[in-house]
Amino acid sequence: MEFLNRVWKSQYPPEPPKTADALRFGVLGAANIAPTALFRPAKSHPEVIVQAVAARDKAKATAYAKANGIPQVLDSYDAIINDPTIDAVYIPLPNGLHYEWTIKALAKGKHVLLEKPSVSNAAEAELLFKSPLLTKPVPAEVNASANGKPPVLLEAFHYRFQPAWQYFLSLVDRPNIASVHTEALIPSWLFKKDDIRFRYELAGGSMMDLGTYTFSTLRQVFAAEPEACLDCKITKCEPPFELCDYASEATFQFPGGQIGTVKSTLRGSHFSLGIPWIRVTHKPVPAPLAAGEKPSAIPEGHERVVSRQMTLHNFIVSNFWHRLDLEDEFVVRRIDDPTKVAKRWTVTESKKIYTFKEAGIDQPSEPFWLSYRHQLEQFVDKIRGREGSGVWVSHEDSIAQMRMIDMAYKKTDLPLRPSSKYQAE
């Protein structure tokens, strides 16, 4: 019942009254992800109103607005960013259009919630996230919600904002990581072979879609940037989409020689559930005596060590369902010859963390809040100048993410995703 109640509320959340100064969002495009990523989360946030949408096909936008309870349909993307009543813009357009419309929105003083991947390649990321528009204060007459500060730009890596993910990270012993592996797949029936995700001119490819999550988790776990992509194997789409990959496996080296591996596909087995997971394996470390345990518990000339393996199932949208498995292997071994083991045993535990309170963190949260709702909370806090949880995706972070993706493509015979032809004024 708890599961059903949580899922029901995530789809039909309580709707508190909106504040008089609620932020009004405009949406570029009639994307399938937007109802989950913004519309439903906005319902339970008292400071957010989804005000308007525009699409290339106005008839489609009109039907989309009606289906999602959006009060306004504007004629074009330009009409959205030029509307003085719109405070923030959500951009879920195809990857290849991200740079152009983010720059245009920032130039109009709008805050931007930008779907990942932020842009098409690292060079484009440098241009966007180091743009002077991000340091230029926005006048009150242009966007009062900016409070005379520069506009806020966030790459929407929503999974990072979840209580389960933050709790998982708190358990990582970074100096003693032995290996990290993460996998994510989507069943092949979900996307057609000519889906925009497989169009090179729109910066498509699996590493630009599902792969962004797996790459990002490695950077989060190691809290560092990869020094090299040691290997990257891809499976290409069929012609005429052969410049895009639909599956990839990559190995990255991080500082200190630590290794992380990733695997993802947009064409998994028809019958696979596709639950993404990440596993961190630690090196053995000394296991001290427990409270009340006598020194004689460890024989003379021996030491007791423990190595922990942590697996988080469904790290992308944990509040639907997830499970964190902890497996601690204890070994009593000779100090002078660690291969001689006197005793070995394993202790396992599983946990579920649906609120920050359960993670021991003092931050607002509800069990039904999906990752997107947590993300929206922090986006609004940043615009309002509130401290928030401290979880954020910095501009340098977004640049580094694109460098990692480029690093992987350079290990294949595919070209980097093409930059936008748009030239900022």
Structure in words:
Residues 192-266 form the GFO/IDH/MocA-like oxidoreductase domain. Its EC number is 1.1.1.179. Keywords: Oxidoreductase. The protein has 2 domains: 2-158 and 373-409, 3-Layer(aba) Sandwich (Rossmann fold); 161-318 and 320-353, 2-Layer Sandwich (Dihydrodipicolinate Reductase, domain 2). Helices cover 25% and strands 26% of the residues. It has 10 helices and 15 strands. A hairpin with a 3-residue loop joins strand 9 and strand 10. Helix 6 packs antiparallel against helix 10.
Helix and strand layout, with pairings?
Elements: H1 2-11, E1 23-28, H2 34-43, E2 48-54, H3 58-68, E3 72-73, H4 77-82, E4 88-91, H5 98-107, E5 111-114, H6 122-129, E6 153-155, H7 163-170, E7 177-187, H8 210-222, E8 228-236, E9 245-254, E10 258-268, E11 277-282, E12 285-286, E13 302-313, E14 323-334, E15 341-351, H9 371-384, H10 395-409
Parallel strand pairs: 1-2, 1-4, 2-3, 4-5, 5-6, 7-10
Antiparallel strand pairs: 7-11, 8-9, 9-10, 11-13, 12-13, 13-14, 14-15
Helix pairs in contact: 2-9, 6-10
Brief description of this entry?
This protein has 425 residues and is α/β, with parallel strands linked by helices. The chain has helices spanning 2-11, 34-43, 58-68, 77-82, 98-107, 122-129, 163-170, 210-222, 371-384, 395-409; strands at 23-28, 48-54, 72-73, 88-91, 111-114, 153-155, 177-187, 228-236, 245-254, 258-268, 277-282, 285-286, 302-313, 323-334, 341-351. The model has no long low-confidence stretch (mean pLDDT 96).
Instruction: Count every beta strand, where a strand is a DSSP E run of 2 or more residues.
Output: 15
Classify the beta-strand content into a percent band: 25-35%
Question: Termini separation (Å)?
Answer: 55 Å
- Poorly predicted regions are none
Structural class estimated from helices and strands: alpha/beta
Main sheet characteristics:
9 strands, mixed
Give the ordered list of helices and strands: HEHEHEHEHEHEHEHEEEEEEEEHH
CATH level 1 name of the largest domain: Alpha Beta
Overall mean pLDDT stands at 96
Number of domains: 2
Give Rg in angstroms: 23 Å
**CATH-scheme architecture of the largest domain:** 3-Layer(aba) Sandwich
Shape: globular
In CATH, the topology of the largest domain is named Rossmann fold
Total of helices: 10
| Fourth CATH level, the homologous superfamily of the largest domain | NAD(P)-binding Rossmann-like Domain
Helix content: 10-25%
Keywords: Oxidoreductase
Catalytic activity: D-xylose + NADP(+) = D-xylono-1,5-lactone + NADPH + H(+)
Organism: Sporothrix stenoceras
Protein name: D-xylose 1-dehydrogenase (NADP(+), D-xylono-1,5-lactone-forming)
